[in-house]
Fold this sequence. Notes:
Elements: H1 3-19, H2 23-31, H3 40-43, H4 51-73, E1 77-81, H5 88-92, E2 98-103, H6 105-113, H7 115-118, E3 128-131, H8 137-142, E4 151-155, H9 164-181, E5 183-187, H10 192-204, H11 206-209, H12 212-223, H13 227-230, H14 235-244, E6 247-253, H15 269-280, E7 283-289
Parallel strand pairs: 1-2, 1-4, 2-3, 4-5
Antiparallel strand pairs: 5-7, 6-7
Bound molecules: S-adenosylmethionine (SAM).
Residues 1, 6, 9-10, 13, 82-84, 86, 103-104, 107, 132-135, 156-158, 161 line the site of S-adenosylmethionine (SAM).
Amino acid sequence: MAKKNIKDTAYTNLLMLADLGIPEAVRFRDALGLEGNPMQSLARVPFASKIPLCISTISEILYQRTNDLIDQERNPTILDLACGYSPRVLVMAPRGYTYIGADLPVVAEELIAKRSQLIPGSPNLFAGYRCVDVADEEQMQRVLAGLRERITIVTQGLLTYLTIEQKLELMQGIRSLLERDGGCWIIPDACPDRMLPATFDAIMGRVGSSMVQGIYKIVDKQVGRSREENGWQSIDEMTDALEGFGFSVKRVPLYRRELPLWCLDRLDPKAEDRLIVAWQSMSSLVVTLSE
Ligand SMILES: C[S@@+](CC[C@H](N)C(=O)[O-])C[C@H]1O[C@@H](n2cnc3c(N)ncnc32)[C@H](O)[C@@H]1O
């Protein structure tokens, strides 16, 4: 990915969560000195005005369900790989977790420089950010240096950007980390082929789902990605690759009624029902080492 565009995708996720009013996202955005909604201009185009809501809805379900799964697993350390500007630390640190976010230097250096504003008053010296290329096993080995606890590894919004070779390196790195002290790997976005079309269809109707191919084209070009070559588009393809590598894969529902979803307040009741039905047919993955 081009460096500037890497940063932009990560900023967009945070700004869309903040735009929904999610308190920790608003605090994180302000601490980073950011403002605005990168998709605001679309909101004024009649046929495209609901695209920003579709995107924030996707960002939020993945973010909230990941937090929920982390709480279900209850491992003391969270390693958020390709963390971007996720505000996850602000909800997880007060619950007693050691939160470590890792990303490429172009993102992580900014987070490291602003750590004291982003994680105010944290007495936990391990908590914070690291510069790591997740496709470099040696760097992955060093990411938890000095820390010996069960971990929950998270990859949210990462896998479709990596080539197949990078995903093999990532799996190798994650396997080594899980072999040390145990734990699991959470992949909330396990249905990339269905998430955008189903969400756009639920919120915008047919006109929405017909726009999805165009949106893929714009994003793929921006970040220099070939989704076909990168693979792992469907949950079956993902599961086969993970099991073939020796992982054990558990499918869990993407949606739970108990999730605190701010985006639902922005939808009319019919769109909300359609969206929940669509989400109920999708899964996330909890991955562990095979026995
Ligand atoms: C779409 S953003 C998602 C950020 C965050 N996980 C979230 O959900 O808000 C993708 C992130 O992947 C990071 N990334 C891409 N390739 C990476 C690599 N090889 N190693 C580490 N991070 C990477 C980018 O820098 C960016 O922050």
